[in-house]
Amino acid sequence: MNRRKRSRFIDLRAMRKPAALTTAIVGTFVASGCSKQDATWYKTADDCIRDTECTDFCRTAYQKALVESQRSAPRYRSLSACEYDFGDKECYPRDNRYVPAIAGFMVPEGKDCDRRSSYPYYGRALYWPRSRYSDVNNQLVTGDGKKVGSPYSNNLSVSESMFQKSPASYKTLSRGGFGRTVRAASYSSRSSWGG
What we know:
Mean pLDDT: 75
């Protein structure tokens, strides 16, 4: 009985990708992952107006953040599960579930109101977990679990992708579930090209 390895018949040269193509693909991923955008977060539209003097822009950005939070806020089955992640009196009922109150909204940096408005999703809702049990205690996060910075500074440096449409939240979380979401979002951003 003659046993032969099947791999002996594989032509490895035919399976190799051209170096130029591989370099172009890697370069595209690296370049797209490195674009940062300076941003500012505000608790209210009035705070934004005082800082920027862009009345219409700030009011619209705040309204966009409220609309986004309707779609993308973390959802919990019980008030205690939501407060476990976000802190006492930081959650309220919505559509037979509990969601955290938004801490504020994030907008692109700059004094030019028209340039700031050019971003399609320039009013990004932010949440501030204050529970000592939360993995992201005292950090600003988006509804899909991405960390954006400290709530104690209004200045942020975020990926430009933060001003793209955030995914809708259909999953109901259990106690401590938002921490797992943040860990997963943080891991995926660290493991991506250039992130």
